[in-house]
Amino acid sequence: MTNCTGLSDRPWRRCGLWVLAGLAALLATGCGGVQWQSRLEPALQRAGRFNQLVLVQFRTWTDATCIEADNTVFANNDVIKALNEYQCVRLDYMLNTPLADRWGVTVVPTYLVLRPDGSVVDRRSGRVDPDEFRAFLKWAALRR
User: Fold this and answer.
1) Any domain includes 94
2) What distance in Å separates the CA atoms of residue 56 and residue 34, rounded to the nearest whole number?
3) Which pTM was predicted?
4) 23: buried, middle or exposed (CB in 10 Å: 19+, 13-18, 0-12)?
5) β-strand 110-114 against 86-92: which pairing, if any?
6) Is residue 10 part of a domain?
7) pLDDT, tens digit (0-9, with 9 covering 90-100), for 38-81
8) Pick from 142, 124, 140: nearest CA to 57
């Protein structure tokens, strides 16, 4: 366990950041069969090596639509199968605002499909059902 004493003049603030970072890491881990990563750069590098695209999900851990997607979209076997062809990155919007700003993300959830160089192939925001999401992934793969 991390000892937060002495890290700043207000150790409770620093500890709060550790708690938020821990929650972000928890959100980034596997949900169902999707192997979520929590860091974008390594995923972009892997995507380049394996000639893949990157799916980035910007979310918050309290948003009902994001939670619903975990139970519907990302629990769907056909979606999971389609995502096996992607490097999947889950980012907490509040902890990654510079990246969100880079791509103009203002709502959660927002899904971006990126090329390995970080350029956007396609994007989608808000509630989607599994069939819509699979169509989104298929269309993005065709546009690479």
Assistant:
1) yes
2) 12
3) 0.79
4) middle
5) unpaired
6) no
7) 999 999 999 999 999 999 999 999 999 999 999 999 999 999 99
8) 124
